[in-house]
Design a protein that fits this description.
This protein is an all-alpha fold and 113 residues long. 83% of the residues lie in helices and 0% in strands. Helix 4 packs antiparallel against helix 5.
């Protein structure tokens, strides 16, 4: 948000915004792969049959049956909920409030989907 506002006020060139967003996207993707490797593959969490078939069915559903536009429209409110959780947690004064404000908006999105 800060970077986009700096670009809007012409303090940062547009190419730098595109560069930062590209590096951020690649970094997030690599982080997801590393997380999945360490906490799913190495721990053999999904080797048992009911878990493996469930993960495969979710992957097939998200990659083959849903259109890219639908997935993009689902990702926008998910990102909004994560941002809302971050802002609410920054405004909380105690640990219980921070935990509740970090957990509640993403849970509401997951329940709604």
């Amino acid at each position: 948000m800060t970077l986009l506002m700096a670009c809007y006020r012409r303090k940062t060139p547009l190419w730098r915004v595109a560069w930062v967003l590209t590096v951020d996207y690649i970094g997030n993707f690599c982080g997801c792969l590393v997380f999945a490797y360490f906490f799913s593959f190495l721990t053999q969490t999904f080797d048992a049959e009911p878990f493996r078939s469930y993960v495969q069915s979710v992957a097939v559903t998200k990659t083959r049956t849903l259109d890219f536009g639908i997935l993009l429209l689902r990702a926008i409110p998910a990102n909004m909920m994560v941002c809302l959780a971050t802002y609410l947690a920054m405004g909380s004064r105690d640990a219980a409030g921070k935990f509740f404000n970090l957990a509640f908006p993403p849970y509401m999105f997951v329940i709604g989907m």
